[in-house]
Design brief:
With 179 residues, the protein is an alpha+beta fold. The protein has 5 helices and 6 strands; from the N terminus they run αααβαβββββα. Strands 1-4 form a two-stranded antiparallel ribbon. A two-stranded antiparallel ribbon has the order 2-3. A two-stranded antiparallel ribbon has the order 5-6.
């Protein structure tokens, strides 16, 4: 037996990076084609859809999402795009902006009409559709369905550190007895 420590190099990360970089050379392209070339409405609608989708793809940084999707797929064999509504994303509600400029802080009240806090800027967002790439260990298809074509819903489970969860719940005013 030797007293020298063994050194091991994880080449897996480098291998993944090489696979992802070679896969990301192919850009994501979407195009809407009019049903007929003779109708101007179809041509205009297709052009409008092209512009809207290209703007949204740029806004959500579709290329970064595709790289992350490739990375998780190469690592785990499968990955999922979780598309969901995030009420804390998107632009700030214009009414919140107007009222906060006029009155400063905007109070929140409980059911009895007592002031319990203030509206945070994060809570004043209008919400937006978000996309998140998740691995297979977070997604659970409907029970007793053996084929993807038969699955009606998929449960998403998020794993959170216990102390992080307690901090989040404390921020929402939930005591340990209510959990």
């Amino acid at each position: 037996s030797s007293d020298k420590p063994k050194v091991r190099v994880n080449f897996f990360v480098e291998y993944l990076d090489q696979k992802v970089s070679s896969a990301s050379k192919n850009k994501t392209v979407l195009s809407f084609i009019p049903l007929t070339d003779s109708e101007q409405d179809d041509i205009n609608n297709a052009e409008a859809c092209n512009r809207l989708v290209k703007f949204r793809m740029k806004e959500i940084d579709i290329e970064a999402l595709m790289r992350e999707q490739d990375r998780k797929t190469f690592k785990y064999g499968h990955s999922f795009s979780r598309i969901f509504w995030d009420k804390y994303a998107g632009p700030v509600n214009p009414q919140y902006t107007k009222l906060s400029k006029k009155h400063g802080e905007i109070p929140t009240f409980d059911e009895e009409g007592k002031k319990v806090g203030k509206v945070k800027k994060r809570q004043a967002k209008l919400g937006d559709v978000c996309v998140e790439v998740v691995s297979t260990d977070c997604m659970f298809p409907e029970r007793k369905k053996n084929k993807w074509n038969n699955v009606d819903f998929v449960d998403y489970v998020e794993f959170v550190n216990a102390s992080e969860l307690q901090a989040q719940l404390r921020g929402q005013g939930v005591s340990h007895r209510q959990r």
